[in-house]
UniProtKB/TrEMBL annotation:
Keywords: DNA-binding, Transcription, Transcription regulation. The gene is cysL_2. The keyword Kinase does not apply. This is HTH-type transcriptional regulator CysL. InterPro entries: LysR-like_Sec_metab, LysR_HTH_N, LysR_subst-bd, WH-like_DNA-bd_sf, WH_DNA-bd_sf. One of its GO terms (molecular function) is DNA-binding transcription factor activity. SUPFAM superfamilies: Periplasmic binding protein-like II, Winged helix' DNA-binding domain. It comes from the Bacteria.
Amino acid sequence: MLDIQLLAFKAVAQKKSFSKAANELHISQPAISAHIQALEDRFNTRLLDRTNRKVTLTEAGKLLYKYALELSELYDRAEKAMAEISGTVKGHLLLGGTLTIGEYVLPPMIGYFKSLYPDVDLTLEIANTERIVRRVVQHTLDLGLIEGPASHPDLIFEDFFHDELVVVVPPNHPWAGRRSVSVKELPGHPFILREPGSGTRVVMEENLKMLGVDPAELKIIMELGSTQAIKEAVKAGMGISIISNLTVKIESRYNLLREIHIKEKPFRRNFQVAYNRHKFRTRATEAFLSILRQPAPFKLQSLVK
């Protein structure tokens, strides 16, 4: 593997934080500082500027970071070549997932992957679509699994699952016994939604516009940063929402929430995996992609039953 000092430097450069780099490498923060100091002594130059708790690369640091990425990729290539000879899949896979995918899709998927490839270590970052895409562009994630529309010239996007957004209401709501509602009925009801820019919010707004409803007409009383928080607020009778039907299966089964379809047409979206066309893909990355590309890799459909 890479020299531990370069690994520490690369982690700090990517995380822009000594503490986050320490967490990623599972070593202490003083150890990270010692490795950076040793590198700066070796090259007789400052590599990082530390001001107001913010870490930035100096010009020398930017140059070394470029070589650290190249060395890391060279190591990945060597590891893949050796793995192909031995027939094993090893290494470290860096995954990113948006909130719905990270909370409801990836856990069973990662469990299935680990059952096939126990020697692969995985790190999962959960964030919104914008951040996950940015991290894949920056080569700091191997794969990004996203639920919102996105594009970038450096990235390749592949669909791997179809999802549907539904209206969710508490069981005592006047709509609770209905199978569907019209989008024309939505304005005027108190709504609890994800923050602007989230994948779920973007897909909902685009579908409303296509059906002639201005999203600004919705009576939004609260914006929350997680689907779980939204579900709890809806259960408490604070309002209704539009979220993925993947996320309410347990609540629906136990009559804690009711899911209602949109009458005019389903609010469907594709989950996508994004990877950088310029980043070398290890055997672990290729193995995870192969699972995503299978029609029913581990019966993902069971998640929506």
